[in-house]
Specification:
Layout: E1 2-8, E2 23-29, E3 32-36, E4 39-43, E5 48-50, E6 57-60, E7 64-70
Antiparallel strand pairs: 1-7, 2-5, 2-7, 3-4, 3-6
Length: 72
C-alpha cells in the first residue's frame, strides 16, 4: 500500500491517468471532483472516492487536501 497527501489550489487538477489495483482519494479539506468520462462526482471533507479502473482525473473545485491511497 502507498499513501500520499496532496494539496491542490482551486482550479488545479491531477493529470488524467489509470492505476492498476484499488485506488482511493480521502478528502481531508475543500471540494474535489473525480472525473471519469462520461461520469463525475464531487467529494467533500470525510468522503472517500474510489477511483474507477478507467482513465480519470481529480480536480480541485476549491482549494483542497486529499489522501491518495494505492493498493497494489
Amino acid at each position: 500500500m502507498r499513501q500520499t497527501v496532496m494539496a491542490l489550489r482551486q482550479g488545479e487538477h491531477m493529470h488524467e491517468r489509470e492505476h492498476p489495483g484499488e485506488v482511493t482519494v480521502h478528502v481531508l479539506h475543500g471540494l474535489v471532483r473525480l472525473v471519469a468520462e462520461p461520469d463525475s462526482r464531487d467529494g467533500l471533507p470525510g468522503d472517500v472516492l474510489v477511483m474507477p479502473e478507467r482513465r480519470h482525473r481529480v480536480e480541485a473545485v476549491q482549494e483542497c487536501a486529499i489522501l491518495f491511497t494505492t493498493a497494489r
